[in-house]
Design brief:
Blueprint (H helix, E strand, L loop, with lengths): L1 E6 L2 E4 L4 E9 L5 E8 L6 E7 L5 E3 L7 E6 L4 E6 L8 E9 L12 E2 L3 E6 L1
Parallel strand pairs: 2-11
Antiparallel strand pairs: 1-3, 3-8, 4-5, 4-9, 5-6, 7-8, 9-10, 9-11
Length: 124
């Protein structure tokens, strides 16, 4: 079983930055991808960014392009989401997710394991 633990959330003013971490453990393999999703109160969970572990290929939601960067640390089995120029609309619970396969998918149905989420709050 694969376990995912997110960390790094918190409260930040608009225009500020946060760096989220996702640590993976368990029976992981080289052929997988990790994604970040978020869910705001009263809204559906939406895709943010994803990365293919082996190749490092990435994909981003249009709303975060140029502001967020997803990356990986192979030695630590961790994935990071660097969030810059944060806006109040970025306020949400952020989740990391794991899927078997190489493609950095952008839909939650394609992911197999999920973390517990970490809260990000951006004030005006």
């Amino acid at each position: 079983q694969v376990q995912l633990v997110e960390s790094g959330g918190g409260l930040v003013q608009a225009g500020g930055s946060l760096r989220l971490s996702c640590a993976a453990s368990g029976r992981t393999f080289d052929t997988y991808a990790v994604g970040w999703f978020r869910q705001a109160p009263g809204k559906e969970r939406e895709f943010v960014a994803a990365i293919s572990w082996r190749s490092g290929s990435t994909v981003y939601a249009e709303s975060v392009k140029g502001r967020f960067t997803i990356s990986r640390d192979n030695a630590k089995d961790s994935v990071y989401l660097q969030m810059n120029s944060l806006k109040p609309d970025d306020t949400a619970v952020y989740y990391c997710a794991f899927r078997f396969g190489l493609r950095a998918a952008d839909t939650e149905r394609e992911y197999d394991y999920w973390g517990q989420g970490t809260q990000v709050t951006v004030s005006s």
